[in-house]
Design a protein that fits this description.
Layout (H helix, E strand, L loop, with lengths): L5 H8 L3 H8 L7 H14 L5 H8 L4 E6 L7 H14 L3 E6 L4 H13 L4 E4 L2
Parallel strand pairs: 1-2, 1-3
Helix pairs in contact: 1-2, 1-3, 2-3
């Protein structure tokens, strides 16, 4: 399935990319009829917003890294459930990494998370 971009949606409708963005992000500046038509075409075309592109403008990814030492620890499922519940209420998600108590892997996981421009890190030593 081909990825549809914002420009293609705008061209199909004969509107600006800004109008499509306003409709998708529920921003002011569009009349109701135009907004509804844009959202209808967005759904028909299967448009999926590019979260990375959106995060550049906002300067945040709405993503938190969670680094744990071992996945088998029976305390982690409850902890992760609490983290997910709390973050999702604020519109965040998390990426889980496991170091397996290996300091080199731990360092590499942290570096990878930072490269992804996470907004925060929960690190359980």
């Amino acid at each position: 399935m081909k990825k549809v971009n914002l420009k293609e949606v705008a061209e199909k409708l004969g509107v600006s990319m800004m109008s499509v963005s306003r409709a998708i992000n529920n921003k002011p500046g569009l009349n109701t009829k135009t907004r509804e038509k844009i959202l209808q075409v967005v759904n028909e075309m299967g448009y999926v917003p590019n979260m990375l592109a959106g995060s550049l403008g906002r300067k945040e990814t709405k993503t938190i890294g969670v680094l744990i030492p071992v996945i088998e620890n029976t305390n982690f499922p409850d902890m992760l459930r609490g983290i997910e519940s709390t973050l999702s209420k604020e519109g965040y998600r998390f990426i889980l990494c496991c170091s397996y108590n290996d300091p080199i892997k731990e360092r590499n996981e942290i570096a990878s998370l930072l490269e992804m421009q996470i907004d925060g890190l929960i690190w359980t030593p």
